[in-house]
Amino acid sequence: MSDLLDRSALADDVLPAARRLLGCELAADTPQGEVRVRLVEVEAYRGADDPGSHCYRGKTARNEVMWGPAGHLYVYFVYGMHFCANIVCLQDGVAGAVLVRAGEVLSDLGAAHARRPTARGRDAELAKGPARLCALLGLDKEANGVDVLDPSSPVRLYAGTPVPDADVRTGPRVGVAAGQERPWRLWVAGSKTVTPYKAGRARADGPDW
DNA sequence: CTACAGATGTACT
DNA sequence: GTACATCTGTAGA
């Protein structure tokens, strides 16, 4: 058990925020009890200069919370089927968020498998991928805008155990215009729960953290 | 591993 | 209408 993450860890810029979110623990109340995961893969988005961001074209009803204060959830529905969750970063009025892409289950595995039968008993598939992680934690449009740094919220973000620099890997994003190859995807080396597809090539030499 | 079908919100033309 | 801006599950090799 650990304390909630400090909100200031998300305030400065999306890349250091993403770096800090690795190793944090996201917990949600579900009918099967509290489900908790350790974040092992994240991806940073910043509205102003990222064509891949939902906010690149400005504020809409859908992406509104991404423009708000840090520490809230931005949950959106995609492809008519799936939910994905971001943790909002930066100052109120500035669009930025970190997409949570994968996690390792820390809570009861039986309950987790009951929530995600399509994992077919494979622990590594419980929360591998942003929509799977949302399904596991029960995050849907009801969770949009929730403050995960409020201890009374149904979804909470704990500081967890920081990941050493030596274990952090970064990769360029794919499908983004040339010149945007900044290491905005970060993951924990060696985790079996990281989405391997669209493999941005791993690099141990990140920016100067 | 690769391929593609899935069911349908959101923002665009 | 159409593409999709952050996909998943299943089938088949």
What's the helix and strand layout?
Elements: H1 14-21, E1 25-30, E2 33-46, E3 73-78, E4 82-88, E5 96-105, H2 109-115, H3 130-137, E6 155-158, E7 168-171, E8 185-188
Antiparallel strand pairs: 1-2, 1-6, 2-5, 2-8, 3-4, 4-5, 7-8
The chain binds a DNA duplex (13 and 13 nucleotides) through residues 43, 45, 50-57, 60-63, 76-82, 84, 86, 99, 101, 118, 129-132, 135, 173, 175.
CATH topology: 3-methyladenine DNA Glycosylase, Chain A
Q: DSSP strand (E) fraction?
A: 25-35%
Mean pLDDT: 87
- How far apart are the termini? 26 Å
CATH class: Alpha Beta
Helix and strand pattern: HEEEEEHHEEE
Task: Indicate the low-confidence ranges by residue numbers.
Answer: 197-208
Family: Belongs to the DNA glycosylase MPG family.
Organism: Actinomycetospora flava
GO molecular function: hydrolase activity, acting on glycosyl bonds
Keywords: DNA damage, DNA repair, Glycosidase, Hydrolase
